[in-house]
Amino acid sequence: MNSLLSTSRDRLIAQCFAESAIDPENDRYRAVLFEIEADTNRTDTRPFADVTHSSYYGGNEDEILFMAGSIFHIVDVQKASEDNAIWTIKLVLCGEQDNQLNEVFTNLKATLADETDMVSVGKILDDMGKREPAKRAYDLSDEHKRNETNGRFGNPMVSYTEGEYYPEIIQTFQKGVVRLTENNGDRKDLVFNYQVIGATLNKLKQYDSALENYSKALDILLDLYGQDHLKVAINYEAIAQIYEKQEKYQLAITSWKECLRVRQQLLPEAHPTIAGTFRNIGDVYNDVDDFDQALAMYEEALKIQLTSLPSNHPSTAKTHLRLAWIYEQIDQFQLALKNYTIAFDMLKLSYPLDHPSLVQIQEDIDNVKKVLNRMS
């Protein structure tokens, strides 16, 4: 939290505040009620205190005030009302040296630049899907101001969102490669340029050229960091995705497994990124109809997601969908129905019932039920 957080011990008072935020004219947003668990015996958290007797509102609100900068762990997210107007988010107050948080921050820093700057901020915002703030962060960065002298050209946030600029992006970043090579520039900048060129060529479906640039980036990364670095894993992931598009599935599996090996070496055992990597490997096995291997990968992904993600997380639902599809292919229809139903129940908390994804899952459920009825 980047501001003081005023809360109440009285649930009814908190619920009244939440209800006052409901806008019947706007169904894009939901009111949220936070349930906070705070251990009064811990000394490593930001301060919080009962300020009821000195509160502006007097003693009626039973007010607890949390200091700015307090860190909370999200335990669960659930709907609190039948009309989905209010949702409950369960939080636990964390210490600043919380082990899980330290691992997250360490791993996040490993995937970003060696120094924190506006480019790093922009990268985080871009990963969150906040494109415009990401562009503004990059435009404010020292990197943007000095790009003409160090060989990194243009705004990397644009390269993934604005297709009409792709040829221009390739040209300007290729100029950066030439300048960096001629001037013995920073090799990390050279990696950056190769990766942006590779990503842009990938968007243009020029897969061989994209692979060539990602391979050059990988060679430099291996020389700079060795095999076991998260930036190396990210590069393997990009290469694997291109091999998939080329239908070179064995090469894709090899790259994905190298990506997985690095991530398992460096990330916490139950990290969601590892789950996503297992699922991606499962997708490739699925593409080549190796259902046993696909099933094994999806089960590994699900095992991690059930321990590391909030219940009813959409990513977990998507893994259940993949499991359901595999079970359907191998005639395990009861298990297929179970997983389709779990996925539907999860996703209906996030999407309206007429959402295309839910409509499709309902059709899948109905089809499996018909098969089971014919078998009975």
From TrEMBL:
Instruction: Could you list this entry's UniProt keywords, alphabetically sorted.
Output: Repeat, TPR repeat
Q: Which Gene3D superfamilies match?
A: Tetratricopeptide repeat domain (1.25.40.10), Toxin ADP-ribosyltransferase, Chain A, domain 1 (3.90.176.10)
The answer to keyword Hydrolase applying to this record is no
Looking at the UniProt entry, the stretches that span the membrane are none
Hydrolase: present as a keyword of the record?
no
Positions annotated as TPR repeat: 275-308
What is the protein's given name? Kinesin light chain
Lineage, top ranks: Eukaryota, Metazoa, Spiralia, Gnathifera, Rotifera
